[in-house]
Amino acid sequence: MTETSRTPDLPAIDRIDVVVTDFTGRVTRMRSKGSYDTGEGGSLLGKPVLVRVHADGVTGYGQIRPLAPHHAMSETYASMKTAICEVYGPRLIGRRVMDFEGNQALMSQLGPANWNARAALDHALYDLTGKLLGCPAHDLIGGLSQKRIPLEWSVSMARDPGKVKDDALRAVQEFGIRVLCLKAGHPDGWAEDVKNFRMIRNLVGEDVSLGMDPNTGWTVASTLRILDALRDDRVDYIEQPLPRDDLAGMAAIRANANGVVVMADESLASLQDAWNIARSGAADVLCLKLYKHGGITQARKIAAVAEAANLRINIGGLAVFSQLEAAAGAHFCASRPAAQVMPGAEFIFGLGVAGPDPLVPETGFVIEDGHVRPPTGPGLGITVDEDAVAKLALASDSVS
Fold first, then answer.
1. Which of left, alpha, beta for 8 (phi over 0: left; psi -120 to 50: alpha)?
2. What is the pTM of this model?
3. pLDDT of residue 1
């Protein structure tokens, strides 16, 4: 390698900021294991954590909203803030911006399961590196394998079937979505899940891919009864029917699913989880959500395990009100070969369908006929309005 062709020696991290910001809207959804709720305005619980990483006068941004209280993840804004400001941050100061593997290895030693905090830092480092090099994040992780990414809409459960119907119709008619995932595990029993599925299948027809996600709310017996009841209604996939540790039960369902694709979500967080799922034959698809793996760097390794095991991947995570989180998902998805990725990336709720991102007033990152193109600007390609950050800040801290 000639001296002129060497990668520039990027500067070291000199400061890290953490800001918990408020939302200007609220999203609540019904699930089998408790509600999804971004919380009241002004409350800290349920709000996203914005991370700024600074080097040589340039700033990289990452943002993750911790889901707690949640049955599969326990991080909150407070645990994220503490992990970054007191554990990871002081030891990342002075390290090379582009040392993605080394920085992740350091965090694995210090606090391996603080996945949300690690993801926010990891995404900020990709944003910062892309800005320093003048290239989009997908060029740092494999290039642009997919120029247009098909999107998936997660349809919330509701006591009123009309609300489920309206949610599905909006996705298809207003945004052109061709992949719908119905939340399931109805509190009144599995028969309600069957009714809801038939209602939506009859509504949207055969041209829309339709799956079900009970968020660990079924049993092996109820899952097989549901699949049998819907054998003529074409269930395209089921996502995480059983508790995260029941890989044997997941494998039993897969063996008797008669071609219905089985996806693992809550069962998958770490790289070791991916190996265990593949080894036990518990799923056809691994649902990758960057916030639960520690960001793009770790997700790439999980995707490699899936590729080696001949499994497909799905890019999940609602990214509610967050263009930054949605963009990270889009760059990662775009870098993977289309043949490996199950159609339908879930980060659509970061693209304004539930309300605008209060930190990003203007963007070209939009839905087009049920698809989205990954941003092409440097880094994540999203411009944050710092005046909005200052206005909506609920708590903040810095490490230098």
1. beta
2. 0.96
3. 38
